[in-house]
Amino acid sequence: MSAYAAIVWRELRRAWSTGGLALPLIFFLLVAILFPFAVGPDGKLLARIAPGVIWAAALLAALLPVERLVSPDLESGVLDQLAVRGIPDAGVAAAKVAGHWLGFAPALLVATVIASGLLQLPGAALGPLLLALLIGTPGLAALGVATAALVSGLRGAGALAGLVMLPFAVPLLIFGATADQPGALKLLGAVSLLLVAGCPFVAGAAVRMGRS
Amino acid sequence: MNALALRGVACLRGGRLLFEGLDLALAPGEAALVTGPNGVGKSSLIRIAAGLLAPAAGTVECTGDRALMAEAPALDSELPLAAALNFWAGLDGRREVVPDVLASLDLGPLAQVPVRMLSTGQRRRAALARVVASAAPIWLLDEPANGLDTASVALLEGLIAGHRAAGGIALVATHLPITLPDAREVAL
Questions:
Q1: In the predicted model, is pLDDT for residue B159 greater than 90?
Q2: Is A84's CB within 8 Å of B66's CB?
Q3: Name one GO molecular function term (chain A) (predicted).
Q4: Please, what sign has the CA dihedral across residues A120, A121, A122, A126?
């Protein structure tokens, strides 16, 4: 167990020390700021599209650090060293999901409060939106790690990562942005759970395939 | 009892058969020196022995923990050397030995220097320090003498000898001369 905790802690430390924490947040806020400029200062319209904008921004912010999640560890031999110690690749991936989530989600929730002000989201809608992000971001983190493992070692991995990840994130986006509808939160939870449970195995298999 | 045994191992890389029918059994205190020209499969043999690469044929039996020194040092480049080694020593539950191991490899004064500032040879010694600190009975060293100066190669030979004297096993792939007394020679 302590081995997994050490990997999670290492992920967090690397996210903080390489600017991996601040960059996605600034990016997230910038996207939220761009929309009022693009759409115009119509409060009602902004309030209506706010959850969708915030979810799309969160999705892009989660995609941003994908290139540093698996690739550097593959090149520096860290994944091999963990495997030699008998830690399963899927377990390493699960720890990376936890580390990635801790690295961006809590700060993203705080930034959402700021973004909701910029988009004139009514106060009553902020609670459900934060709850939806809390439920959906673990799924985003898992998807990010699986994508990172799939494209690791490839040239132009960053652009490819978007193509691989974004289609799979559509269900999260649909149920997350309509969290005020009945049943949407449950479906969001189901999708997020499926991703969190399945993605570590996908990532582990991708890393194993990469060795041969 | 610790042992490493390869039976009838074949290695296929990119559609090319690098070697086949390789038999090697190492008991405690024994070492094998894998030699041969570039591209003959020395590194692949080490990775097969480490369990990272599946052999195309044959079996690998391993009793006891393995420690691998590959080409990549697997040390976080932004961390000070001692902290980077502490991550692995922490996984192995042996944080307390790191200062002694660093001293034994003449790396004591560099403990607080970030890994990215180290020279090639210093980085190789740091990777060796991770192997020594792990206390794994089976050492798998891929080109450990690369980038080392004469004094460091002597240090490396001394560490392997000490490891074998304590009942350890060493499988060493190298194209540079390393003196290992009574080592099995595997010429690929």
A1: yes
A2: yes
A3: heme transmembrane transporter activity
A4: negative
